[in-house]
Backbone:
């Protein structure tokens, strides 16, 4: 099927005299998770992971992705013309130099201008210039091949209550205007969907796993225009938007609107999210600046933090009941990885305010746990029994919180010394980073090393970043703070601020044998102010036991054991009141002190 699609694509390319095309993973808003309509790379490659770039020429179908997905690509693309190119630096655009070197002089390189930011297009042009390679817009090409392409978002757009978000949309808009006044611009253009949802306090279900609204916005001193289809907006909300001076225009009118604006207009926008089609439509001057919204949105107010803690509590109850069920079920029966993911969601569905998963549940049994972003197939996934190691990375969207948690558990039998050592070193890395006290000027790349230091001492490492920001009923991977081993993403280059939500998730993976990851969400806070500056630290808010069966206690220090015991005490205290007597006994056993 994939090869047939590539054949049809190449035929259309030949008709249009296009020598190669590039298909990224995002939508016109540079989103990580996208609506089915924009899953072009997956359609032509068969690879369903969330990160990757496909380059197709008449002779090559080359797919770039990072180490999280190497094994998944090899599995999903087996038997097709698609060849894996392993990124040496995660998220780096290594495909650009490759295709420009491969093409001949005066070749035509096709991209959908809606799917590339201005900064990405500039990068491609730099590499293409030496051979006079022309960029061609192919926005109409995909529909010629993808005949049954899904429609775009059509879910209702609803209000995100101030009781949950903690700040009115009018207050947020005025803050943006205040920042705009400090710039030599008169309009702020917003295209990131998480920023649209945050700014207007609206939510929908346009995007997989993320309650975002497909839209754009233009903020000026005397006007606010939201580009979202009005027929999808609940009537009360639409009335409130109008009362607040927010004009709603159709989503599809954004290009014509931009073309009609005065040439005297100076538009301030984020170059990493503005797509090239919108840039090309702006008649006035475009002034680039990092997002005015991102740094505001990433710092949570007190209402959002309390709601996040409530979401973690609900998640902890659901996970406790799930693990109790799993332990009992495996005594007499087995279950597939795929079905176990569905079963886990069934426990979350019982929790108040649950709306869905925050990303596709990762259930990796034994060797499948080494596939970092593994997606268990409905047919042919591994059968889980009451022995061996199981990694589960999952998350939920509640109307008041977004969660993300990974636990590695031992199901039975005798673990190897190698497995116990790796599991313990990963936990030590988690504890090391979570207990860090650090200057507010320190970047995520500097902090990342502390999560790896114990693995490094044993010659071990892992290939992904150690953490990412978390939204408030929004994106599970929220920019920009986090922990990364390189400076290619904002997670590595950004500093941390008080009251941000971030994951800490070190791991270790042995291909074909096991995968280990321990992940909690933490909230950053000011712990000390001295003459040398402000120092921050982290508080864990995830509430779920950490399996102690795989610990090599000889590798743990007394302070690490104290941390583990205190964390387990916190988990039990927070969850036990809402559990039955039998559930309390089970959790008390899992949270028993480690000596």
Residues:
């Amino acid at each position: 099927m994939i090869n047939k699609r590539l054949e049809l694509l190449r035929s259309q390319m030949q008709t249009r005299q296009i020598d190669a095309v590039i298909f990224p993973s995002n939508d016109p808003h540079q989103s990580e998770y996208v609506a089915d309509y924009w899953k072009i790379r997956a359609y032509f490659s068969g690879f369903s992971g969330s990160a990757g770039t496909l380059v197709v020429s008449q002779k090559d179908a080359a797919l770039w992705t990072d180490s999280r997905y190497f094994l998944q690509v090899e599995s999903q693309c087996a038997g097709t013309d698609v060849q894996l190119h392993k990124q040496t630096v995660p998220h780096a655009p290594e495909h650009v130099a490759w295709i420009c070197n491969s093409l001949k002089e005066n070749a035509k390189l096709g991209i959908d201008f809606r799917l590339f930011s201005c900064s990405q297009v500039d990068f491609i042009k730099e590499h293409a210039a030496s051979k006079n390679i022309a960029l061609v817009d192919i926005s109409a090409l995909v529909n010629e091949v993808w005949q049954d392409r899904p429609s775009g978002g059509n879910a209702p757009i609803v209000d995100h209550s101030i009781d949950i978000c903690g700040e009115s949309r009018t207050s947020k808009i005025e803050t943006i205007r205040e920042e705009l006044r400090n710039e030599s611009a008169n309009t702020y253009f917003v295209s990131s969907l998480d920023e649209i949802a945050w700014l207007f306090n609206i939510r929908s279900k346009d995007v997989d796993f993320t309650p975002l609204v497909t839209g754009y916005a233009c903020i000026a001193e005397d006007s606010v225009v939201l580009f979202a289809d009005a027929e999808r907006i609940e009537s009360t909300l639409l009335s409130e938007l109008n009362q607040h001076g927010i004009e709603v225009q159709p989503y599809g009118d954004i290009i014509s609107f931009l073309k009609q604006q005065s040439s005297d207009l100076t538009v301030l926008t984020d170059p990493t999210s503005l797509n090239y089609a919108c840039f090309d439509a702006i008649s006035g001057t475009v002034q680039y600046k990092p997002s005015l919204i991102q740094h505001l949105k990433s710092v949570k107010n007190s209402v959002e933090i309390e709601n996040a803690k409530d979401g973690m509590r609900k998640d902890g109850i659901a996970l406790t009941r799930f693990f109790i069920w799993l332990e009992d079920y495996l005594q007499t029966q087995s279950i597939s990885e795929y079905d176990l993911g569905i079963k886990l969601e069934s426990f979350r569905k019982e929790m108040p305010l649950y709306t869905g998963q925050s990303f596709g549940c990762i259930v990796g049994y034994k060797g499948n746990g080494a596939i970092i972003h593994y997606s268990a197939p409905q047919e042919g996934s591994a059968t889980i029994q009451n022995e061996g190691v199981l990694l589960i990375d999952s998350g939920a969207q509640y109307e008041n919180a977004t969660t993300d948690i990974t636990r590695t558990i031992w199901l039975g039998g005798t673990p190897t010394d190698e497995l116990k050592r790796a599991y313990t070193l990963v936990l030590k890395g988690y504890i090391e980073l979570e207990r860090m006290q650090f200057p507010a000027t320190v970047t995520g790349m500097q902090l990342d090393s502390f999560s790896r230091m114990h693995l490094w001492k044993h010659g071990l490492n892992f290939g992904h970043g150690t953490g990412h920001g978390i939204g408030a009923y929004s994106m599970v991977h929220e920019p920009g703070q986090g922990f990364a081993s390189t400076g290619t993403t904002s997670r590595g280059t950004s500093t941390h601020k008080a009251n941000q939500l971030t994951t800490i998730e070190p791991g270790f993976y042995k291909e074909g044998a096991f995968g280990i990851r321990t992940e909690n969400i933490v909230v950053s806070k000011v712990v000390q102010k001295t003459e040398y500056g402000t120092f921050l630290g982290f508080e864990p808010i995830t509430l779920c036991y950490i399996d102690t069966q795989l610990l090599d206690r000889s590798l743990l220090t007394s302070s690490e054991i104290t941390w583990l015991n205190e964390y387990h005490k916190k988990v039990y205290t927070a969850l036990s009141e809402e559990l039955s007597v039998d559930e309390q006994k089970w959790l008390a056993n899992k949270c028993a002190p480690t000596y």
